[in-house]
Amino acid sequence: MSFTIIVAFTLVAALLVISPGPNGVLIAKTVPISGRSSGFANVLGFMSAFYLHGLFVIFGLSVLIMRSAELFTAVKWAGAAYLCWIGIKALREALGKQDLSHYAAPSRRPRRFAKAYLEGFLTNALNPKVSMFYLAAFPQFLPASAMNPTNVLTLVFIHSVLNLLWFGSMVLVLDRVTVFARSGKAQRWLKGVTGIVFLGFGAKLASVHN
Predict the structure, then answer these.
(1) Given 10, 45, 139, 193, which is the most exposed site by the fewest CB atoms within 10 A?
(2) Buried (b) or exposed (e) across 171-209, using 16+ Cβ within 10 A?
(3) How many other C-beta atoms are found inside a 10 Å radius of the C-beta of residue 68?
(4) Do the Cβ atoms of 119 and 42 come closer than 8 Å?
């Protein structure tokens, strides 16, 4: 695989990473509530899902999902349901009467790490649009003769590093403004906006066709 191919893929993947999407919204919800460590757990979940999609490419599962209407629909609705579930949960908390400031207590951070990782992982693993990116982008940079595990995982590694740099920076920035964000009023606004946005992403994902 040539240096030119690596540079070209890096540019395309960077545009995908920085484009608005559920990843950024999830980070914006997690860090003010649970702290920096849980934010990085989200990012680690994103990265793990990329390697899952990379393995799908290696074993041809992405092609199978895209060509099978039943499998594509199942993955699509599972992803849409998950995003909507996050949105509904956030809206219920935003509209509830309980004091939300306690959600940001530092003592809750260690217990939320695994949950934050799983949220990040599922947000990408159940998103068929990520599979579509891998299925559409990889053949542009890797011809059939070069579609081997080493080259595929190299591109996945580049994608995951870009993801770490972008969202890791976002985590650090958000961590510095959590004094305001951890107030009860700010929590309600944050959860309300998060709920609406995730419901929107879920509805948009449900409308995707293969």
Answers:
(1) 139
(2) beebbeebeebbbeebbbebbebbbebbbebbeebeeee
(3) 13
(4) yes
Helix (H, G, I), strand (E, B) or coil at 142: coil
List pLDDT tens digits, range 185-195: 555 665 666 66
State the residue for tokens 């995707």: 208
Residues in the chain: 210
SS3 96: coil
Token pair 């290696």 is found at 58
- The answer to whether 174 touches 73, Cβ cutoff 8 Å, is no
Burial of 164 (0-12, 13-18, 19+ CB in 10 A): middle
* Residue closest to 85 by CA, chosen among 122, 134, 45, 38: 122
Tens digit of pLDDT for each residue in 76-134? 676 567 667 766 776 776 676 554 444 444 444 444 789 999 999 998 888 767 777 77
Question: What are the phi and psi torsion angles at 21 (to 5°)?
Answer: -170, 180
How many CB atoms sit inside 10 A of residue 61's CB?
A: 15
Q: For 33-62, what is the HEC assignment?
A: HHCHHHHHHHHHHHHHHHHHHHHHHHHCHH
The predicted model scores a pTM of: 0.68
**Which H or E run contains 199?**
helix 184-206
